[in-house]
Structure formats: C-alpha cells, structure tokens
Specification:
2 domains; 14-stranded mixed sheet; alpha+beta; binds zinc ion; Aminopeptidase; four-stranded antiparallel sheet; OB fold (Dihydrolipoamide Acetyltransferase, E2P)
Amino acid sequence: MSQSPISTKIDFDKPGMQWGTLNIPFSYNLSGWAQLQIPIATIAQGEGPTVLLMAGNHGDEYPGQIAIMKLMKSLKTENISGRIIFIPAINIPAAKAATRLSPLDGKNLNRCFPGNADGTASDIMAHYLTTEIFPRVDVVIDLHTGGRGVYFYPCAHMHLVDDLEQRRRMALATRAYNTDFSFLYADIAGKGLLPVEAENMGKTVVTTEMGGGEVTSAPVHRLSQDGLNNVLIHLKVLAGEEKSRADLGLPPTRWIQALDAEDYIFAPESGLFESFVDVGTDVSEGQPLGALYFLERPDRDPTIIQANSDGIAIAHRAPTLTSQGDILFCLAHDVEEAVLKTFE
Ligand SMILES: [Zn+2]
C-alpha cells in the first residue's frame, strides 16, 4: 500500500503542548491545489500512556467535539503523565455541514477502516489513523452520539472483545465515564469500524453515545465533559482523583447489551414516527413502543411497533419523518452475571 499523503508539522514524540493540522491534499472547483486541514494537538510530559482523544467521526455528533475543544484549551502540561493526542473533529467537512457522512466523498468514515492511502479523503484519513496514529497509542477514545438519526439515553459503550485482559481494561475505562447505563453493542450496519480496527490492535477503546438528535441538553454536555475527565484520570494520563458513581451519590452503572440482530427494530414502512416510551425505560415483550402514521392515508390505522422481547429501550429514532428501513428502536438487555465477572 502507498505512503499516506497526509502531512503535519506535529512531532508526536515532542513533550509540551503543540497545535497543528493534518493536511490532506485535494481539489475542488474553486481550488486546484487545496488542503483539507484537520485540527490536531498533542500534550505530553514524562512517562505514562498515550491516549488518542477524538470526536466528529460522524460530523453531526457535537457534544464530544465541544468536550475535546474545552479540554485541550484547559489542560496544563504539568498535570499530564504520558501523552494525549486531540482530534476534536476528525471528519471536519461533515461537522461543518452538519452531516453524518463526509460531503467530500459521501462516505461514512466509520466504515472506511483500515483505509486506503490511494482512496478518497475518508479512506486516506482512516489509513492514517490505522498506520500512523493507532500504533503510537495505548487508548482510543472515540466520542459519538446517535447523530441526527437516533436519540440514545446518554451512555458509554463498548464491544465485548474476546481477549479477557483487553475486555477488562475496556470495561473499567468505560465504567469510569460514570454513565447510568454502560452498553455492549453489536455492529449491525456493515464493517470497517474505527473501534474494531483499534481493538484488533489490542488498544483500550472507549466510545460513547451521548444523546443524539439536533438538540444537546446541558446535562448531556456536562456528562460528556465530566465523564471524559474522569476517564483520563482513570487512565492515569491526567492528574486527579478518580470518582466512582458512589462518590457522586449515584447507584452503580447498569451494564446492558444489544448483541442480537433482533435487538434492533427497523421501520417496516415509511411514515411519521411517534415513540410511546422514553429512552432508558424498561419495556416488556408485546408492549407497544411506538407507531407509524401515514400522511397520505389518514384513514389507515397506524402501524404499531411492539417490543419483541423484555428489555430496556436504550435508543429510539430521533426525526419524526421516517423511511422504510430506518432504525426505530434499540432494545437492550441486562448483561449476565458471568460476563460481568470478566469486567472486574
Ligand atoms: Zn457516530
């Protein structure tokens, strides 16, 4: 495979704070010799883990982007043990356009891994992370929300990786986000995900689904920022005292999972979607969760969407206008005791 065309003035081995950009050459109609400039910064001091902290993998998922921008301005080198690489908006063209997919090539960056140095901007970015960034880091923190399409009960989440030592590292870091639910998820929409690429390299991977839809509430911003700070303290890259949920006066996190294809309920036809349940609610099999109404056929009975098992409605569709095949609900279930034991 070819060498990455990305250039940067950042020296990843240098101590202290550095601000820069990752530059991808490209052309468009008003500029034959253009650069896509993706802001990046590093802060480093002494011995400790190297953490990649990134958001905007999907452009329209903003709370993590704000959390990282605030953090990178506030951290002092003397509080760091190791290194943090900040990329607040990795898919900056999509973030500027408020889209999930890159407007440059129409691709979902989170399906482009391991990437291709000879491909489009998204392929080149994925390839650079895979070949230049991931090999340098111990931890990958990739902050998401449900985007405009899905509203999640704000939670940290992770894959249930097979390697038990890696699983334990990931579970402890995920738990340090101090969210009400900690969610084990499955990949139901294709391959080539960033976290999977990093997991396959043995990294500790921490990801979130901080709400979603167009609105981000103040509590979601607070949770995004406080949780991130606590995870960095847990990882020992940032000085401070780790707080547990008990320290915050909260009950333990509830570990839940949606690992079967049936846990993801899709729209059987197009219509206007109404959810009957709030995210985070316990539901029982057969319970009506929501309905689809038909603009052109108000005489038709709505199509009722029922729970196909007992569970927790961890997410539902955000926009009302719905096309056939859109995700409507994600139903999660409590994680078995035997699996929970592997987290400790
Ligand atoms: Zn996302």
